[in-house]
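Course assignment 3, question 2. Fill in each field.
Student: A.L.
Task: Predict the tertiary structure for the chain below.
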Amino acid sequence: MGEDVGVHHQPDGPAFDVVLILHVGCVVVGLTTTVTGAVNAGRLVTLLRTATPLPDAVRRYFRPGVNWAGRSIYGIPVFGFGLLALSHGAYGLRDGWVVGGLAVLVGVVLIAEGVLWPAERRLQVSLAAAEAEESVRRDARAMLVAATVTLALLVAGSALMVVQP
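Answer field:
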């Protein structure tokens, strides 16, 4: 009986399990905050289109402040590299699914930092000042599109990590 050359030993142990939970936790928090942002941006677009007063829940969401929960996406690669280190060679940077996941994450960060969070911050300032100008509509649409694309990338990256082709 020969050993399968293409089959890796599945890493285990308490340290690997804890880091895996933290890695997945960052993905779940990132997905949740992105869905929440998309839903609230969508509600804002609809409310602005119908000139309906903003409900308290929408105003609370767009209260000024940094979206720290959204920044949990930065934990994804940190704990991902930890998983690679703890895998004892079972996974590596040469694996296509790892490179693919990193590429997806770069896309997520570029969209979040370049479009999603800046639009969210501008909306916070505009709505706190009770501005209802075209820039609010434009930022709400930009946030909705960026959150939707970010969400799609997070889901695609998650599927890639689970399937590990």
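Instructor remarks: The chain has a mean pLDDT of 90. The first helix runs from residue 14 to 50.
Grade: pending
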